Each structure stands twice: as C-alpha cells, then as structure tokens.
C-alpha cells in the first residue's frame, strides 16, 4: 500500500513539475486543520513530507492562520504550537485579519505564481482550491499524508496549453503583424474566398438527363420505321398484283 501511494505521489509531482514548473524546495502552505490532523494522527510533517514529495520542502503558514488558531483557544492549542514552527508568509491582511481559508486562497491568486502547495482538511477550502489550475492539494487520510490527483481545472489548462490555444495576446498581435508584412494575411483571405464559391451543375446529373431524352426520342423513330416498312410492303403487293393481271390478259 505504501509503494502504490508513493508511486501515485511521484506521478502527480511529475505532472506539476513538467506542466507548472514546480521546483525544489517545495513551498507548502498549511492551515490549522492540517496541523490538528497531523497532531491527532502522530504525523511528523517536517520529517515525513520531504520523503513523500521527493525533495526538500519549505513549510509555511500565514499570520491569519495563527490568529485564527489563537482565537479558538485550548481546543487547538497543540495545532497552534505546530504552526508557529513554520515560516510565516506575508499576506495582505495585516490590519484586518481574515479566516485562514480566505487567507490561503488569496495567496494562490493569479495563477499561483509562487508555486504553493495547499495542505488542509477543510473540505470547502479544498473544493475552492480545485477550481484553480496548478495548485497541488495535500490532506491527511488514514494516518498518512496524500497528494491529491490533478484537478479537472489543471488538466483542462494543460490540454489547452498543448493545443496552443493559450497564446498570450501580445504574441497573437505580433503574429498578425508579421503576416500583414509578408502578405500572408491577404493570401489566406483569397484562399478562403475561393473555397466559398459555389460550383457549377453536377455533370453526372446532366448526362442522366440526356440519356432520358435519347431514349424518349428513339420511340417515335422506331414507329416511323415500322410505317415505312408497311408502305413498302403495300407498294410491292400492288405491283405484284398489277403484273399478274397483265399476264392474265
């Protein structure tokens, strides 16, 4: 079971390294729920997490998370002691602290430029993280840490990237300008216009119509031939009769 879990973690890490340029040391943002779960399940985060992710890690939290743990009192006192050992990342809520989940979401805005991992047991926060591309999600299940598989949002982002649909706007404009300079834009427009022209009548349909006409025209000609043959036979018969009469006389 441990080997399969490690194999899945290695595969998921390769996805983020290759497509979103995650590199060591891996920066992991932890909230109070994750620290509390680690304490309850006797998990040594600092010692176990680098081996699971396959490289050095930098464990981080925010002032808002520490404030939230402090406000919850004795119930989460142990989780607060664990979180205080981590590096505190600067957030934009110095004057007006917000909840830990809201603070962590603000840290991964605009494409997660600092390549943060989010470690949480908060299901609502996890669902919001999955709606953002390129944000790995860590949680604890059955006394072990688990790196969640890439979200559908991350997979869709990578698919668009591979099909060259996510070309920056300034690159699109430069491509159009280059085409205009080289005259390629006009050529492409002319080709498209030629394709839109309607074609002539189908020659096969014309041939079929002609065959029908010839067949219809053959019927009266055949009747005329029959009439001519009848006239010839009558003329011959009359001639034979006149010759016989003359001989009798």
Task: Offer a quick outline of the entry.
With 249 residues, this protein is of the alpha/beta class.
Give the oligomer, counting copies of the same chain as homo and different chains as hetero. single chain
Low-confidence stretches: 212-218
| Fraction of residues in β-strands | 5-15%
SSE order: HEHHEHHEHEHEEHHHH
Distance between the termini: 132 Å
Query: In CATH, what is the class of the domain at 25-155?
Result: Alpha Beta
Question: How is the biggest beta sheet arranged?
Answer: 6 strands, mixed
Radius of gyration: 44 Å
Query: How does the overall form come out from the CA principal axes?
Result: rod-shaped
Output mean pLDDT: 82
Number of strands: 6
Q: What is the number of helical segments per DSSP (H or I, 4+ residues)?
A: 11
The portion of residues assigned to helices is: 55-70%
